[in-house]
Amino acid sequence: MIVGQLGYVGLFLAGLIEVFPLPAEVIVIPAGYLVQQGQMNLALVLLASGLGTTAGATLNYWLVRRFGRVLVLRFAHYLLLNESKLATLERFFFKHGPVSIFLGRLVPGVRHYLFLPAGLARMPALKFTIFTAMGAFLWTGVLVTLGYIIGKNQALAVQYLPMVKLSITLFIIVFVAFYALRSRMRGRVTNLD
Prior knowledge:
By secondary structure, the protein is an all-alpha fold. The chain is built from 7 helices and no strands.
């Protein structure tokens, strides 16, 4: 298995350069299987994958924060963005950044680009890194657990993957509802003052 050959450094590098066509699932789920087989260490798999993903997202965040607006505007039409949409993204991330970064890490296709609006909005770097790490380690844990439980059995993968996706979706819905309720309650308290 190629994951076993790549080892922990390979897991870190895969997380560091994670891009949409080559998501973490391709490497981390097989690593979970190798953990189950006793060929890899659970803690080191989680650490390597989580740190790699966090480091890659943070590096991209800093690049966008430093050079991003000019570069993003140059290529915005490829991303279906314009100046107005970028301004909206910046305002949204200024207000909801930490929560959206954490939850976005759990959404395939979205997690790969979270650094873009966060960097443009100049979200505090420490907050971005912390919430990225929380989401990255949670998602890595889900993937490793999936690989551990399923192993090589494709029938189990087909059976359990929809349940995993549903569970993640329900978690996101509950988390967003809690956040919205908490924000609304804070707004009422502020209005009373």
